[in-house]
Specification:
CATH class of the largest domain: Mainly Beta
Helix content: under 10%
Structural class: mainly beta
InterPro entries: Peptidase_aspartic_dom_sf
Number of strands: 23
Number of helices: 6
Strand order of the largest sheet: 3-12-11-21-22-13
Order of helices and strands: EEEEEEHHEEEEHEEEEEHEEHEEEHEEE
CATH superfamily of the largest domain: Acid Proteases
Radius of gyration: 20 Å
Protein name: Peptidase A1 domain-containing protein
Number of domains: 2
């Protein structure tokens, strides 16, 4: 299936956009560079467990801001000095929003976070500001600035870039891009493994305005659900002999794969495991099969051998029951594609060749299977 969009390119055609943003050092020690579309990228050190982020800036403030990508949140979110001082987050937030530095306008409207991966119930105010990606900028965007929370919440970044389809940013990006597609390519995730050394550095990239992305294979596209303007697929999920019919399967970029508690309990994944063969693979199936191997998400612990760490469950207010996180996305590039009006949407997956490693071996294990169904006909 071809991507949706009125701007169709022949395979292999590159966008003639005068933008060149260097990537950080790759696996082979060389600097990677692209000269088409708009490419933003990041490095992170696996030994420090720093997760996938994108660097941006706001308005007239030149300070770089590290943001997590959030395809489920419609608004971009930042933290205020008051929030940091009152410890509404548990990690040191390097960037604290100040509209006197950015030139942003206080809209005098309250903000209540809708709990996307957030049990702290963040609250704050809304501002109008400009978000910049390298040479590209998007004006007059509503952003949220958190002032307080009901409890301290751990964050890996200085905020979140809201890319849900109903939001102002994604509409501007898709309408102004020469080709309405965003491609996300995560680096290899940090997971301790027995008697194996993982690469110290891994890089990822975030590209928009181009159909191609270096290091990604050919994309296969699936129609998204029409529910709540989500980047999500309607799917059947199977764990062992148990089938979960027609649930929304979303993306959880830079974070853990999520499954609901009842599915987790059904397979008794909380029990300590003695070998990888006791932990299921995850298979994402349509005309083509995508595999999340147990060794990609099972942590090695010398006391109990293999186990699952940092189990992640969708909160009751989230709009999906399953979400594909970094354990899956480190092996597959994901493309968010639409028509120019962001009315019809597709999610595409392709092999991520940048993260291929010789120590990754196949295993025949029990499967968790996701079967995707088209939600509308083009």
């Amino acid at each position: 299936m071809q991507p949706i969009g009125s701007r169709v390119l022949e395979k292999g055609t590159k966008m003639r956009v005068n933008v060149s943003v260097k990537m950080c050092t790759g696996h082979d020690g060389t600097n990677q560079e692209e000269k088409f579309g708009l490419l933003l990228s990041t490095c992170y050190n696996q030994s420090n467990e720093q997760t996938f982020y994108i660097e941006t800036s706001l308005g007239s403030d030149k300070q770089k801001i590290k943001l997590g990508l959030d395809t489920n949140r419609p608004i971009s979110l930042f933290f205020s000095p008051k929030c940091v001082q009152d410890k509404c987050v548990t990690e040191n937030v390097e960037y604290q929003y100040d509209n006197t530095k950015t030139g942003g306008k206080d809209l005098d409207k309250p903000y209540q976070d809708e709990t996307y991966n957030n049990i702290a119930k963040w609250s704050g105010k809304q501002f109008l500001d400009t978000i910049k990606f390298g040479p590209q900028y998007y004006k007059d965007l509503t952003i949220a600035v958190v002032d307080s929370s009901s409890s301290a919440e751990k964050v890996d970044w200085n905020g979140y870039l809201g890319l849900r389809t109903g939001g102002e940013l994604i509409i501007k990006v898709m309408k102004e891009a020469q080709y309405p597609q965003i491609t996300i390519q995560e680096g290899r995730g940090f997971i301790p493994k027995k008697n194996k050394q993982v690469a110290k550095f891994s890089y990822g990239s975030f590209t928009f305005g181009s159909r191609d992305a270096k290091g990604c294979g050919n994309f296969t596209f699936f129609n998204t659900t029409n529910h709540n303007n989500q980047w999500a697929l309607k799917a059947i999920v199977k764990i062992g002999n148990t089938k979960y019919d027609f649930h929304n399967v979303a993306l959880n970029i830079g974070r853990r794969t999520q499954i609901p508690q009842n599915a987790f309990d059904e397979f008794k994944l909380m029990e300590d495991k003695t070998s990888l063969s006791d932990i299921p693979d995850i298979r994402f199936v349509d005309d083509k099969e995508y595999v999340l191997k147990a060794e990609d998400f099972a942590w090695y612990n010398k006391d109990v051998n293999q186990q699952l760490e940092d189990y992640s469950e969708p909160t009751p207010t989230e709009l999906y029951r399953f979400a594909l996180g970094s354990e899956f996305l480190q092996n597959y590039c994901v493309a968010l594609s639409s028509d120019a009006n962001v009315a019809n949407k597709q999610i595409g997956f392709a092999e991520n060749f940048n993260n291929k490693s010789s120590d990754i071996k196949s295993a025949t294990l029990t499967s968790l299977i996701l079967v995707v169904f088209s939600c509308f006909t083009l």
